[in-house]
Amino acid sequence: MIPSLEDVSRITVLRIYGRPVSGYTYPCYHGLAERLLDLPVEHRSSLVPRVALQESLGLYDAGKNAGESEDEYLERLARVSRRELASEPGPQADLDLRRFLVLFLGRLLFATRGDAVHCRFLPLLEDLGEVGGYAWGAAFLAHQYNGLSASERQTSTSGFYPFLQFWAYLHLPALGRGDLARPGLVPIERRWDSRRDTRHLVDQLERLQEAIDSHPYLDVIWQPYLGEGSEGQPWLVQARPYFGRSVWLHALNLVLPLNLFLTQHSLGLRQSAVEFPVRDRFTRPGRSFRGLHDTTDWRERAREQIENWERKGNAVKSDATTDDAYLQAYALKYGGMVYKSTRHQVDVAGEIASLRALLHSVMQDRETAQRQAAELRSELEKVRSTGAGGASSSRDAGGSPSLLEARLAGAVLRAEEAQRHLEERERDLRLTTEHAMDLQAQRDQYQG
C-alpha cells in the first residue's frame, strides 16, 4: 500500500491530470530570477532568500498569533495581501503572482531542507496562462516519494508532510487520528484538526515507530474511498482516468515510477506474483536539484516516460484468485531479511500464534454458519412439503410461494453466502499461516 494519485486528488484537490511538470533545468537561475521576480539573487545561485521573498508579498511579519483561530488568521492574511499586492491586472500583478507561486511551490508543496527557496520551477511560470495546465499533483507525489526514499541518516524531512498525515488517518487508523471536526467535507484534508503533541520530538517519534511496528494487519483500511461519492468534487471527473494505473511521474529532473501493480490489494484485487522492480531503473544525474550542472531539457531526456504519462500509463489488472503466488515469491526474495524497523525484528512466532487464533475463531464461525444453513434448509423443505400436500396455507390460491417460504428461502441464501465467505476466509488464513511458518523456517535457516 502506497500513496497514489487518487490519494493526492481526494486529499488535496491538486490537479493530477494535464501536462507533465517537465521542461528545462539550468545550472544557475540568477538571470531568470532577476528578470521574472525582480529580487536580488546571488551571482551563480539558484536560491532566492526566503525573507526577501516574504517581504515582497507582505507576509514576513504575518505569522499566526497565539490564540488566533485558523479563520481569523486567514482573514488577517487576506487583509495584508489586499494592502500589499496589486489589485489590478498588469505587470505588477504578474510579478506578485510569480513571487507567490515561487514561495508556494518552493516552501510548501515542494519544500526542501534549508531556509532559501529554489527557483527550479520558475521557467514554467514565465507564461502564467499555462501554469494551470500542469499536473502539479503528480509532481507533488513524485517529490513525496523522493523525500521518503532519502537516507535514514538525515535528521530532517522535506516535502508537505500533512499529506502523509491525512493519508495515515485514512489507511492506518490505529496509529491515531486528529479531531474529526468537519466530517464529510471535501477536500478530505479539511475534515480533521490536528492534535498538538507537547511531548519531546524524540518521544513522539519513538511512540510512532512502536505504533507502526505493532499495527494490526486487520485494522489496515485498503480502500478508504469506497463510501466516498463525487458530489461537489468536479475535479474527480478528469482525475478518475488516472486512478488505479501504473504511470511515470514527472517533476522536472525527478522522473519516478508509480508502481501500483505492487499494491493490487488496495485496488480491490488479489495480489498476483510480480517482478519486484529494481530501484532507480531510470538513470538520472543525482537526486539533488543543485547536482545538475548542465542545461537539460527533460521533455527530451525523459521522452519515453512522458509518452507513458500521456497514455495514462498502464491499467493494473490481476487474474489471481488468491495471494499465494505473491506471498511465496515475496518469502523467497525477502524471507531472511524481513524487519519491521531498524530496531525491531519481526516476531514471526507471535504472528503465527495470532494467525492460528484467528483461524480457530473463523473455523468456529464457519461451523456455526454451516449448522444454521442446514437447519434453515431443513425448515424450508418442511414448509415446501406441507404446502405441496395441501395441508398448509404455505401456498396461496395463485400457486405463488407464501410469505413464510419466501423469507426462509432468503434466509437460506444469506446463510449459504455467509458460509462461503467464511470458508474462503478460513482457506486464506490457512495459506497465510503456512506461508508464515515457511518464512520462519527460512529465517531460522538464514540465521543459523
Automatic annotation (TrEMBL):
Signal peptide: none annotated. InterPro entries: AminoTfrase-like_pln_mobile, MAIN-like. Residues 369-384, 419-437 have a biased composition (Basic and acidic residues). Residues 4-254 form the Aminotransferase-like plant mobile domain. Residues 391-401 have a biased composition (Low complexity). Residues 369-401, 419-448 are annotated as: Disordered. Pfam families: PMD (PF10536). GO terms for biological process: meristem maintenance. This is Aminotransferase-like plant mobile domain-containing protein. It comes from Colocasia esculenta (Wild taro).
